[in-house]
Amino acid sequence: MTAAALRPALFLDRDGTLMEEVDHCRDPRDVRVIRGAAEELVRARRLGWACIIVTNQSGIGRGYFTVNDFEAVQSELLRQLGEVIDATYMAPDHPDSPTPRRKPGPDMILEAASAHGIDLSRSWMIGDKPLDIECGRNAGVRTILVETGYGARASECRPDHRVPTVVEAVRIALGSES
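RE: above sequence
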């Protein structure tokens, strides 16, 4: 694919970013999408952006829930968001034995960029934890920390931007293309 054919992407953390934080969410009934997120992602898609979830799910590696539980929660999230997510990349690793796919490693973003024709230089990682910001930096994308989830307590990281929710984060990213 030529550089001109590549498109920008929003790489989005899931828990605490797109949906309210639930410690190791394993029940679809606990899924609550951040208000306004779906509408902003619809706008991003209309403008040609890819919307890709990159999520660590250490609850699988820790034995708290199964891949099937993750998929049930993910299905409910996608139902609430509507058809705005191009793909989901998930790392089930336990934090004590991470692979390069587990954030802050960049591999989920790099895999997605290759599979979906993404221009990393025009893309953003949006998340609520310092490891999301580090992951974005490791992959060569700009970063936005949201203060939902764990973000309000994340004073030690230095994102490109810090905002209240994913709604403002998407607006900043889309505005960068103007």
